[in-house]
Amino acid sequence: MVKEKEVLDAKSIQSIVTRLSHEIVEKNHDSTELTLVGIQTRGGPLAKRIQALIHKHSGVEVSLGLVDITFHRDDFRERLVVPQVKGTDLPDSIDDRIVILVDDVLYTGRTVRAAIEVLLSYGRPGKIQLGVLVDRGHREMPIKADFVGKNIPTQDGEHVEVLLKEVDGKDSAELRFYERDS
Q1: Which domains are seen in the chain, by residue range?
Q2: In whole angstroms, how far apart are CA 103 and each of 23, 47, 58, 133, 179?
Q3: How far is CA 119 from CA 36, 76, 100, 134, in A?
Q4: Which of 37, 38, 127, 177 could hold 43 in an S-S bridge, CB 3.0 to 4.6 Å?
Q5: pLDDT 10s digits, 21-71
């Protein structure tokens, strides 16, 4: 059985994404050196939203890319499902650029580690930063986000599920608790 509770509605997500776009510009004074890279699946739409907001507020057109970590996951061979490969699509070069990885939820850090591995196979960024909509804690790797929309601490059995209209038809973040059948 699954219990769920909405922790972010569409308005909250929009507000968080707007704040993240401002924080990114403030921390990186030369926005022309930025490349936003969304981690497939929901990091892509978030990166695109941030890109549009940076352009709207600063007039700078930030380059945009996507990374698919499917074959770089450390649990790739343990998964029984056939992977859905979405592909990596990066701008011409990420060499010496400030690359900001964007994802929906930061949990163990393993997804981010895999995304960094993908990036480094395409070039050598000058700097890699991380922006996430939600940080739920419980890191297994020494990874910390530079830009965090909201911290939502979770307990054992709880998960944060982000829904985005581009993928799921609506914007929402839900805290889900999966009860074990007795």
Answers
A1: 11-156 (3.40.50.2020)
A2: 16, 8, 22, 7, 27
A3: 12, 18, 11, 22
A4: 38
A5: 999 999 998 888 999 999 999 999 999 999 999 999 999 999 999 999 987
